[in-house]
C-alpha cells in the first residue's frame, strides 16, 4: 500500500539515506577485523575509534567509556547483570520502576529469582516517579538504581538530574535506559551524575543490531560475554565496524537536527489534537504534559478496543502501535498503563501510541489524524 503513513518510529525508525551511504562505504572499504594489526585491520580500527569518539562526545563522555553492544537490550542487560554480579558481595538490593522497558524489567525479575531483592517503584498518573520514593527505598545494601530516561510508551521523562543528585551521596550505581531519549534530548552524563547509560542506533535512523553502553570510568561491571579482548576486554566479539560508523553518522545527524525535530514533532501533536477535536471524538492524551519526549504521543480513545482499532488503522494505512513493540501480538494490557492507571482502567484497552520521525510532514500527519478520527467514529457508533 503506497498511501501508508508510518507513525511507529518509537518501535523502530527508517535508516537515513546518509547513514546507508556511510555504512555501505565502510562495508566496502573497512572490511578488516579491527583487532588485526595489519594495514586493513588498522584502517578498520581507525574507523571504529573515530565512531566511538564521536558518540562519546554526544553525551560528554570519554571515548574509553563507550562499550559497543548489539543494541539497547544488550546494553541494559550488561548494565544490570554486570553491576549485580560485580557488586553482589556489597549488597543485593536493586531499585527500578514499574514502567521500565522489558529489557530492564525481565533482567531484574531474573535477578530476583537468583536471590537479589528488587524494589519496583510506582509512578503517578502522568507516568512519573517521585524522587522522594527513591530516597525512601534506598538502603545501605542498594547496589543499583536503574530508571529509564524517557518512557517508550507514553513519553514521560523522569527527573534524572534530581535522581543523579540524590545518588551522589550514595554508593549505588545509577543506570538509565536512554534508548528513546538519545538523539532528541540533550544528555550530559557528567552533569547528570549517570554511571551507566544504554542507547540503540535503530531509534535514531541508524541500523538495527548496534548500540552502546556508557560505563563511567571506575564503575564495577562484570563481563557477560567471554571470548576475545575486544572493547577493552569488556565485551567479546568481533567489532561491527560498518554499523558503528553508521551509528555515529546517525547520532551526528540527530544532534544537528534535534531542535528542529523537537519543534516539528510538537507541531505534529498539535495537528493530531486539532483533527481529533474537530471530529468531536472522545479522547485523552496520556503522559506528562511538560516533561515528555517530543516524538511520543499516547492517546486513549474512549469506547474503542485496541485490537480491532489497530487492525482498522492498519487497513486504512495508518501504522501505529498500542505501546511497546516488544509485546506486539500480545493482548496483555500495557504494563506502563497499568502502573499509571490501575489494573481495571479503561485506558488499558483503548490507548494508541503515535510516534514521529523521518519522512513525516504536516500534511501526512493531518491525513493520519483524519483517518484515525473516522475509524474512532465508526468503532464507537451506537448500534
Automatic annotation (TrEMBL):
The keyword Iron applies. Its cofactor is pyridoxal 5'-phosphate. PROSITE patterns: AA_TRANSFER_CLASS_5. The keyword Kinase does not apply. InterPro entries: Aminotrans_V_dom, Aminotrans_V_PyrdxlP_BS, Cysteine_dSase, PyrdxlP-dep_Trfase, PyrdxlP-dep_Trfase_major, PyrdxlP-dep_Trfase_small. Keywords: Iron, Iron-sulfur, Metal-binding, Pyridoxal phosphate, Transferase. Belongs to the class-V pyridoxal-phosphate-dependent aminotransferase family. NifS/IscS subfamily. This is cysteine desulfurase. It comes from Solibacillus palustris.
Amino acid at each position: 500500500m503506497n498511501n501508508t503513513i508510518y507513525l511507529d518510529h518509537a518501535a523502530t525508525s527508517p535508516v537515513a539515506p546518509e547513514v546507508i551511504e556511510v555504512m555501505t562505504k565502510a562495508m566496502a572499504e573497512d572490511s578488516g577485523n579491527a583487532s588485526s594489526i595489519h594495514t586493513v585491520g588498522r584502517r578498520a580500527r581507525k574507523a571504529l575509534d573515530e565512531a566511538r569518539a564521536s558518540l562519546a562526545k554526544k553525551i560528554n563522555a570519554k571515548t574509553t567509556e563507550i562499550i559497543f553492544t548489539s543494541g539497547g537490550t544488550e546494553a541494559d542487560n550488561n548494565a544490570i547483570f554486570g553491576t549485580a554480579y560485580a557488586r553482589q558481595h556489597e549488597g543485593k538490593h536493586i531499585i527500578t520502576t514499574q514502567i521500565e522497558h522489558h529489557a530492564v524489567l525481565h533482567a531484574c525479575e531474573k535477578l530476583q529469582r537468583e536471590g537479589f531483592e528488587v524494589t519496583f517503584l510506582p509512578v503517578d498518573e502522568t507516568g512519573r516517579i517521585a524522587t522522594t520514593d527513591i530516597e525512601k527505598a534506598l538502603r545501605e545494601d542498594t547496589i543499583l538504581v536503574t530508571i529509564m530516561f524517557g518512557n517508550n510508551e507514553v513519553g514521560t521523562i523522569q527527573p534524572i538530574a534530581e535522581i543523579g543528585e540524590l545518588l551522589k551521596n550514595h554508593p549505588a550505581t545509577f543506570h538509565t535506559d536512554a534508548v528513546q531519549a538519545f538523539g532528541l534530548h540533550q544528555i550530559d552524563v557528567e552533569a547528570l551524575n549517570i554511571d551507566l547509560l544504554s542507547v540503540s542506533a535503530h531509534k535514531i535512523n541508524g541500523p538495527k543490531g548496534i548500540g552502546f553502553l556508557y560505563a563511567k570510568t571506575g564503575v564495577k561491571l562484570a563481563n557477560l560475554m567471554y571470548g576475545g579482548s575486544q572493547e577493552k576486554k569488556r565485551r567479546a566479539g568481533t567489532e561491527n565496524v560498518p554499523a558503528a560508523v553508521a551509528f555515529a553518522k546517525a547520532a551526528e545527524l540527530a544532534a544537528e537536527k534535534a531542535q528542529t525535530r523537537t519543534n516539528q514533532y510538537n507541531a505534529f501533536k498539535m495537528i493530531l489534537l486539532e483533527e481529533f477535536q474537530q471530529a468531536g471524538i472522545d479522547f485523552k492524551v496520556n503522559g506528562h504534559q511538560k516533561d515528555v519526549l517530543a516524538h511520543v504521543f499516547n492517546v486513549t480513545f474512549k469506547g474503542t478496543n485496541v485490537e480491532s482499532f489497530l487492525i482498522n488503522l492498519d487497513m486504512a494505512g495508518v501504522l501505529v502501535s498500542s505501546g511497546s513493540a516488544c509485546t506486539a501480538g500480545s493482548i496483555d494490557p500495557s504494563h506502563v498503563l497499568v502502573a499509571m492507571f490501575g489494573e481495571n482502567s479503561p485506558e488499558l484497552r483503548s490507548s494508541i501510541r503515535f510516534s514521529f520521525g523521518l519522512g513525516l510532514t504536516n500534511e501526512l500527519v493531518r491525513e493520519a489524524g483524519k483517518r484515525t478520527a473516522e475509524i474512532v467514529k465508526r468503532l464507537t457508533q451506537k448500534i
